[in-house]
Amino acid sequence: MRFQLLDIVFNPPHPVTGEAVPPSDRLARVVEHAVLAEELGFDSFAVGERHAGDVLSSAPTVILGAVAQATERILLSTGVTVLSLLDPIRVAEDLATVDQLSRGRLEITIGKGNEDLQYPLLGLDITKQYEYLEENYELLRLLLSEEDVTWEGRHRHRLENATTLPRPFAGPFRIWHGSATSKFAVELAAKHGDPIISANALQPRENYQVLIDHYRELYLAHGFDPQYGYVGSGSGGLFLADTTEEAVEQYRPLYEAQVAAMRRRGYDPATHVGKALAFETVEEAVERGPALVGSPERVAEKILDYHESFGHVLQSVSVNHLLPPTQQEDVLRRFAEEVVPVVQAEVRTDLWTAADERRAKGFTAGGTNPAEGDAAPRA
């Protein structure tokens, strides 16, 4: 299995102290964590994108440019590029620039986003978010793979002989599709033979399982090579302690604050599926939900348990930004040293190895089974 560290760059005031991290410090920490992730052997580092709320990821390609210059080997990604909101011309230009700066270490994940306030903020009709997503995706694919593009759609002006610069580093980089609540995203991915990443953050396992199963069925029905039907999975937060009981108690204030913040926004689990936490207590989230909170042994066991359901070969994790910086780093170190080897000993994959011909050309992960020492040097 491969591992990714994702930062959506949330930055609300601390729910207990009321203190807020200065934006310059919070953004600097994103880059520092990318460097640490590379040092610890994570395969990928992803930056989210949001344009409303207490979030600092409104310019993810700027952040990824800084990360590209601060790192040498780790794969760079997005989580997600909110393509429904964006001009595909600018997306192609910005992300190809990151691809060039990183010398071919970029793959992206696209989606419609999980923040409703972004649409009125940018003057767009939220009822057309899926129309925007499909049309913008179709155009982005063309712009990345071809020059002198002539194109006409429903929601933007006609293009005549358009070529975006810079071009991608070594041909079009791979596009993943983020999946959270709708069949539309997985159907779009399956239609084009692309991989998916299940959000797996707020809901019961079975809600995500339905979408993953639907994706695999359609992917094969479209006749694509199952070798490239990769599935990734997110998680409902990462926190480690010596025992699961200690982890639950230490994480409780942060989890309860997250639930309270969603309730203040009017997000009710019954009416806001995919936007509200379905689990009221941290105990429920740990026992029945996607939260990776516990001892290293319990967290490794949970990832493997979810793998039995999802068959995913990429695990994305996020560390809570409200933890003290030293504790954030400690959680990441323990995860890399005590959880990752246990999972990789059980789950084989050729994702991002030399056998994965569609990988970002500037990046090669280890072999199919790191436990056997079958590791190729990274680019």
UniProtKB/TrEMBL annotation:
Q: Which GO terms describe its cellular component?
A: cytosol
Q: Which PANTHER family match?
A: BLR5498 PROTEIN, LUCIFERASE-LIKE MONOOXYGENASE
Q: Does Cell inner membrane count among this protein's keywords?
A: no
Gene3D superfamilies to which the protein is assigned, alphabetical: Luciferase-like domain
Descriptive protein name: LLM class flavin-dependent oxidoreductase
Q: Which Pfam families match?
A: Bac_luciferase (PF00296)
What is the phylogenetic placement of the source species in the record?
Bacteria, Bacillati, Actinomycetota, Actinomycetes, Micrococcales
What keywords were assigned to this record?
Monooxygenase, Oxidoreductase
Luciferase-like domain segment(s): 1-310
| Organism, scientific name | Xylanimonas protaetiae
Q: Which GO terms describe its molecular function?
A: monooxygenase activity; oxidoreductase activity, acting on paired donors, with incorporation or reduction of molecular oxygen
